[in-house]
Amino acid sequence: MERKIFDPFIIRGLLAGIAVALVAGIVGCFVVWRRMSYFGDSLAHASLLGVALGILIGIGANAGIVFTSLLFGFLLLWLQQSKDLPTDTLLGVLSHFALSISIIIISLNKIKIDLHSFLFGDILTVTSNDLWWMYLGGIIVLILILFNWSSLILVTIDEDLAKAEGINPLFVNLLLTTILTIVVAISVKIIGILLITSMLIIPAATSRRLVSSPESMAFVATLFGLLSVFLGIFLSVEIDTPSGPTIVVVSSFLFLLTTFLSIFVVKK
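Above: the chain sequence. Below: its structure as tokens.
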């Protein structure tokens, strides 16, 4: 059956994509500033364990993702305190363990799950209940960022300076982990587990060359995220491709385009 851009499931996909872009653009700036792309990737891998456990025990995939991702993030922060191993090593161990144990759980319990849609995203799977969940999560993220913006920025710039200003870096890091967890949870249906990090990194990286302040970078990154979602979903409908990868391709093209213009046009 031919898809039309105004079909209800397409509209739900667009609304879901908007919810993701609004939070991913802002949160992605912190991921870029703090060089946390590997952490975001590892958190996404851990979310598959949440999907498996959530379906297995009957609490739902979204609740499972939030629980396991928070556990993953807090466990990493705890292990980092010992400073015995570098963060990338800890991430490698934890993420591969979570990914492997999730596959074992799915296999042993014969859980019926559409892995393709969870891994790469699919607008066909977005329901009205998912939209409520996404926008609720998005509002929570925006509120947390709004009321903690200065603390998040200061800890990102210099943790010692933040301590001198009376800010607890551990609390801020726990807060950022919680925010990233919520973003991952609301992004799974539209972007997919394997591509979530790209939605965090690429719009933020695209805007970095074009702005001069953290606030403007967050704003422009959000605009690029929204543009990627609209064009990506439109193209996925027109050429019948998975929504998540198509959005990421569009976002990557915008990054390459702005990079080319900044290097070869602006500098001239």
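The chain has one domain: 8-262.
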